[in-house]
Design a protein that fits this description.
Helix content: 55-70%
Radius of gyration: 26 Å
Strand order of the largest sheet: 1-2
Number of strands: 2
Strand content: under 5%
Length: 324
């Protein structure tokens, strides 16, 4: 049995792991990448094949189908059907609906959570520790248990629409949250996403902001800056990696969500892309061959967002995980 080599003096566990990984031959990593890419490659190739070719032949047979001119097996009709404004199975309205959900559900939690994270990290007030623990504990609440209460909250009219409080010994009702008649609208979906994203956003941003050098804040206070000035001029510019990391997480989650959208938008005239694509698989007019093209159209926007912000992703993902 081979003895475990001792760790060199001064070398951390992370340095040792990095050294071990760099010893792996490059060709092994390329093999892993190739195997991992095969499902996506097959999906992409099938998006350019007609229904019969997708059902009867493996995707690698496209090599023999390409030279056959006029066979119709290799075609762009799938993308035309899902992108054309006049097509029955067009995703045009669904893409607009998905954007109207994902954009506010990403921007609003960042704005509120950044303020809250700074307050928890650098403002001393009574009960700060326990309030932060209570906020982070909300991460343990399953989303599914809140769907029915939220539907009642967004429902039409009294007593189910909005949040109301009946004043004891009187016939008067105090409206706490006038959120009635939101069911079936995109607002009900992004409000739900915002509510469930706030604990994670506060937790992630707090871990990052709390690790910023305290000397910066002390210098700013000496120069006469208040909390808002410190937050706006120091914290926000320095927290861009954490903000971008959460933006990627939240946008991908809301853009690819099916459960909340399908629950809140039942009977709505326009549904997001996830619901529309799922309906393509169940239609009786044999539109399942459009699923591959629709999947790549739906995935295009998240890919743009990820590659635009990916340089911040690792730094934000490890926010507050180590000190020093």
């Amino acid at each position: 049995m081979a003895a475990i080599s001792p760790m060199p003096e001064g070398e951390s566990l992370g340095d040792r792991l990095y050294r071990r990984l760099t010893d792996i031959p490059t060709w092994v990593l390329w093999v892993v990448v190739a195997v991992w890419t095969i499902p996506s490659l097959s999906l992409f190739v099938n998006s350019f094949r007609n229904r019969d070719a997708q059902r009867n032949d493996a995707f690698w047979n496209v090599v023999t189908e390409l030279p056959v001119v006029g066979s119709g097996k290799v075609t762009t009709e799938n993308y035309v059907d899902v992108l054309s404004a006049n097509a029955t199975n067009s995703l045009g309205d669904s893409l607009v609906t998905s954007l109207s959900i994902a954009v506010p559900a990403t921007i609003i939690p960042i704005a509120f959570a950044a303020f809250a994270a700074y307050g928890f990290a650098w403002i001393d007030f009574p009960g700060r520790k326990w309030l932060f623990i209570a906020t982070v504990s909300l991460l343990a609440i399953p989303l599914q248990v809140a769907l029915i209460p939220l539907l009642q909250l967004y429902g039409p009219g009294t007593p189910y629409g909005g949040a109301h409080l009946t004043i004891p010994w009187t016939d008067k009702t105090l409206t706490l949250l006038p959120l009635n008649d939101l069911a079936g609208s995109p607002a009900s979906v992004w409000l739900t996403h915002i509510g469930f994203a706030m604990p994670f956003a506060i937790f992630l941003l707090h871990n990052y902001i709390s690790q910023l050098p305290s000397e910066l804040f002390e210098s700013a206070r000496i120069d006469g800056a208040n909390h808002f000035g410190i937050f706006w001029r120091l914290v926000l510019p320095l927290s861009i990696p954490a903000l971008a990391s959460f933006a990627i997480f939240q946008f991908l989650w809301t853009w690819n969500d099916y459960l909340i959208a399908n629950t809140m938008l039942q009977g709505a005239s326009s549904a997001p892309t996830t619901v529309r694509i799922a309906n393509l698989a169940g239609d009786f007019d044999n539109t399942d061959h459009l699923l591959t093209a629709a999947a790549f159209v739906q995935a295009f926007v998240p890919l743009v967002v990820f590659f635009s912000l990916q340089r911040f992703f690792v730094r934000g993902l490890l926010a507050g995980s180590v000190k020093g």
